[in-house]
Amino acid sequence: MHExxxxxxxxDKTTRxxxxxxSNLLFILGLxxxxxxxxxxxxxxxxxxxxxSGIFMYVPGH
Length: 62
Hints:
Blueprint: H1 2-57
């Protein structure tokens, strides 16, 4: 009886470690994806601002 309880505790610990590892990996992946998308959006936004500033510089009467 005591041995089965110990085995169950060991299994619970390993499964808990697995879940923690999976959650950490998913968290890191999510952060990387968010960072890459943020960088892409900032680059696109900067290019759009640069294009608009160029258009407004060439607008006659400016």
